[in-house]
Amino acid sequence: MTYRELLALYKSGRLDERRRHEVEADIEKQDAIGEYLYEESEIPGLGALKNSIAASEPEAEDAGDERFTSIIQSSIRKSFIKMGITVGAVVLAVVLCVVFLLPRVVSLFYYNPTTIVAESTVGGIGTNRMSLDLSVYSELFLPGHYRDSVVADSEGYGKYGITIPQEVYSADGSSTTLIGTLKRGKLSLYNPDILRKPAANLFMPPDSAADSIGPAGAKADNGSYLETLDESQWYEAYVSLADVTDYADFDTWFQTKNLSDYDLWCAVYCKYGSQPIGLTPRPAGVYLDWDRDAYPDLSLLQCESESDAAAIQTHFISMISYLRDHPDILKVMGMGSEGLNYNIILQDVEKNGLRLYGFAITAKKDTILELSRDPAVSYIYASVLK
Question: Could you tell me the pTM of the whole model?
Fold first, then answer.
């Protein structure tokens, strides 16, 4: 009779008292072995336990005891193997999730500069979010520092490596590539001054009195200040107009001055706050794609006539509308939206047209002095070209 048959008889209650006690003793032994293996976690120790039991029991113990122990050992080993495979699979799944899935999930909660906002119509991979956002932000707020190209590489967990090349050389022949990181919506650049907006309005209001004080000192002493400029240095000149001027009239006047419009920036007159805001009517850079139905002429690189006042006005309205709909770039650049009442700006331009009260150019001392003598100019502040 096999031991399995013996267990079947035990289960059905058909064993005599002696054999029933023997099976119960074997079952108790099995429980003891299981507890020992659980506590020691070492299957090889089962052999030593078997030898110890064999030494303490009579030699008359039959072969069924040894077979019973072997079956227990095999069963426990299989259980441990199954448990090891299960635990290993779970650990592997967790590791793969942490390495590949979690970084992407975390990134979903933060500004993603790599998002393609429009597929390219001329080949390539299209325009990414930060390139388009920065083109609008830099044109509106950064006189002379228009940037429309951003290369972003995801590092996971909302962190990106950022490279912002200068596509067009500055007036002095220099070209600066900005490098940094964008970590969970916060931009850190190794040379941040290039894209840092002016701390205050560097233009003199057109209705200011003769004794008004501006960034270059008193308005009456502006000529003396300009004489102190270095003749060999390039300057960012912030030129205030004597009167608020329609864009079309300004464009006609500017072309008569034979000035370089290489990085011309126009300060738009609209009563919304002290932060100067404007546009670059002669942009140069890369080809961008965007929703042209929602924001016509958002980039003047695709505009048929740079001197078309209507197109320039549409361009400005599109930029303000785009910034209103995509304000995240303001936080990325460390600028809050306080004071930017988009609706008031749009209503002012739509009602009164595109009007200017100043402009910024890159020039040397002789050009700046010549400009200061023009009756259309009321004040000039000059800072060394960054």
Answer: 0.72
